[in-house]
Amino acid sequence: MEIRDDISIVLCGEAGQGIQTIEQILAPILKNSGYNIFASKEYMSRVRGGSNSTLLRVSSQRVAAWVDTIDLLIPLDKAAITHLADRISHETIIIGEKVKLHTKKHVIDVPFAQVAEKAGNPLYSNVVAVGVIAGLLKIELSVIQQEVKSYFSKKSEEVIAGNIDAAKKGYKTRLELAASGKLTINIKKNYQVKHNLLLNGTEAVALGALAGGCNFVSSYPMTPGTGVLTMLAKYSKEFNVIVEQAEDEIAAINMALGAWYAGGRALVTTSGGGFALMVEGLSLAGMIETPLVIHLAQRPGPATGLPTRTEQADLEFALYSGHGEFPRIIFAPGNVQDAFLVTHRAFRLADKYQVPVFILTDQYFVDSYYNISSLDFGKVKDKKHIIKTQAGYKRFKITKSGISPRGIPGYGEGVVCVDSDEHDEEGYITENLKLRTKMVEKRLRKLAAIKQRVMEPELIGEENYKTLVVGWGSTYHVIKEALEQLDCKEIAFLYFKQVYPLHPMAGEYLKNAEKTVIVENNATSQFGKLIKLETGIEIGKKILQYNGLPFSVEKIVSELRECNAE
User: Fold this and answer.
1) How far apart are the first and last CA of the chain?
2) Same domain assignment for residues 22 and 154
């Protein structure tokens, strides 16, 4: 069998079998060899056992979206076939240890464990798989050996040598497969891809934070937000970032508020359950008008829910959390370039308007990566809004815009007084009810200024559309590829990377459509409800999914075809 242009490779096995290792070794090998690559994973919340799988798409064109299709499956345990049953078709090629799989499906028998044992350890089975796949894609053996050596560089010489030998033996097995005519893969290479960046959502958010001047991060680890914390820790010395793993989420957000109060630029990264503990701190930010940037990586709830799965169900939580009324800004990037830019923008706007700014991502987004030519640094500009205080300084001076000049302790002659109670212009507690009214109105006036800087949604497709598909955040690439497959000029895609406040043009785009469709990874169409609240427009068709998995391109194509047929 011969596969051309685009191949979907899925590896599946138990936690502990090194599925992630295969992905982390193969992705850079493939990119550096001229292949466009997309990688993502779905995994269970356990250290050992269960069934975890990694999707690797290898293509002659840029790819960045999840697909259900499996062209080549490498199951490393007997549960893999059952786990992926809904995605395995008659066209799926299965390469595995036939004696262990107990399946009636056709399997090209490759004894991974036996080959690994000959290399020194049955645990090397995953690296044997690396050799097989890389060999089928015609990667030079020297490139494979170099990457395996680099990946295991902190291990002993014996382990490094064993893994290299396992990769070589897997590569030899690939030659036998090709010689038998059972499987040939011919995907056109583009050697310019070698110079591309390979980024995931976690890295893009962390890089955007650094570009935004982030010099303090405090968090309590929680999947899937922890990656941003560890990424910033990795570069902390190079970029002078103070990294604090707090004792809990309450401490984390209060540390971040303290950092901003002192003149730093702080980030908190968390997930829904962690943010639930931060809500009182969020209200404190609203009252003392201290900037704050929160990376909220969504996962299915309520409570612990599915802690390692994906969902877009925390939009309303971010929008309405906190007691009392105060403005906020919410971004939801859908690609790594936007994640970099909006995270940088989050720090600028938090500083300027002295409000909390959210960056909403999700497990699928932060864990998925693909190659891009470069990050656009052209729009990265910065300005700090701290003033040198004078005697008699009023931290909460009532202004027409609602934005008071922000001083910090020790920079100037003024006293920078803040308090969680309602306060006067100098920051001292008050129960003067007339002044209370003025202070509420002052804080809310910022929203009018913020609305002047809202990012306009991006229209992808023809302007004279009949059907308009609305998406936000991580659904971006899936919807985009689905529309490319449909190749229908009457369907366009309106992508929101800022979900609050809404851009005033949002309603105009919707009014111009004969049919409207919204795609969301939640059960109640949270963004659809927000759009209706802000524009009065009810979106006609809702494509919703809330099983913990991301949308696939095939799912969106099928739903949109059905919509057009109605």
Assistant:
1) 38
2) yes
